[in-house]
Amino acid sequence: MMDITKDNYYSQAAALEYMSCSQYKAFCACEEQALAEIAGDWSRGSSTALLTGSYIDAYFEGTLEEFRAAHPEIFKRGGELKADYAQAENIIKRLERDPKFMRYMSGEKQVIMTGEIGGVPYKIKMDSYHEGKAIADLKIMRDFAPIWNERARRRQSFVRYWGYDTQGAIYQEIVRQNTGERLPFYIAAATKERYTDYDIFGVPQEWLDERLEEVRRLSPHFAELKRGEGEPKRCGRCGWCRETKTITYIKDARELEDFYADND
């Protein structure tokens, strides 16, 4: 297996050899789109929302100046930050005023580890690793309100809706394999609201255990698809599926009402 470093972590070669949390979740969402991303045939691209989160990530990593230099699009012509990134600066200033939040984010930054889950190689990169104590991951959210999950037909916390419990399960297991310690997983989250809300959320161990079993069960199938074994499923909803679809039959309008239920 190739050695994973900060320079090759996001490379295509690493994506082919290793599964990651983001890749696993991509397969769960749409197998065909996940393969297209790995092959370089599809990119979800960037967005203001993603760049805003990356701006705050860069601050906590200590790489904000490099981030600013690499993204001139975040500035107005006069050199001032555009509104979304000025808001990111305000979020940072608010978080700096809370000692506990800053303490949780003060661990070793962007620590890389590798291991196996379900016989499949995995790589992780942690935002804030407190050796022997805890794993903390930074999340910037619109707000902390429950989110409607169409597939589950109910509202969920942002932790479960965005699969951060799955991320925690993968991180915890890979750290355990490398150190022998099963560390608690925390989400250090802040909102983009006018008056920023923020908190530290401990993800319950039962959630992590549940998700780890799911990752163990599904990962071998996703690895087979990466090796070209089997036919990947299309979700019919994502950008890749819309971009590559062809009409094969005339649909009954009633299918619109059953679409999500049929794809659970």
Provide the descriptors you would attach to this structure in a database record.
alpha+beta; 5-stranded mixed β-sheet; 264 residues; Lambda Exonuclease, Chain A; 7 strands; two-stranded antiparallel sheet; 46% helix; 12 helices
Characterize the structure shown.
The chain has 264 residues and is of the alpha+beta class. 46% of the residues lie in helices and 18% in strands. It contains twelve helices and seven strands. It is globular. The relative contact order is 0.15. The mean pLDDT is 93.
Can you summarize this structure?
The chain is α+β, with helices and mostly antiparallel strands and 264 residues long. It has helices spanning 12-17, 21-29, 31-39, 48-61, 64-70, 83-96, 99-104, 158-161, 164-179, 205-226, 239-244, 255-262; strands spanning 108-117, 120-130, 134-141, 147-149, 154-156, 185-191, 198-202. α2 (21-29) crosses α3 (31-39).
What is the overall shape? globular
Measure the end-to-end span.
Answer: 35 Å
- The H-and-E topology, N to C, reads as HHHHHHHEEEEEHHEEHHH
Which parts are unreliable, with pLDDT below 50 for 5 consecutive residues or more? Answer: none
- Highest-level CATH class of one domain: Alpha Beta
CATH topology description of one domain: Lambda Exonuclease, Chain A
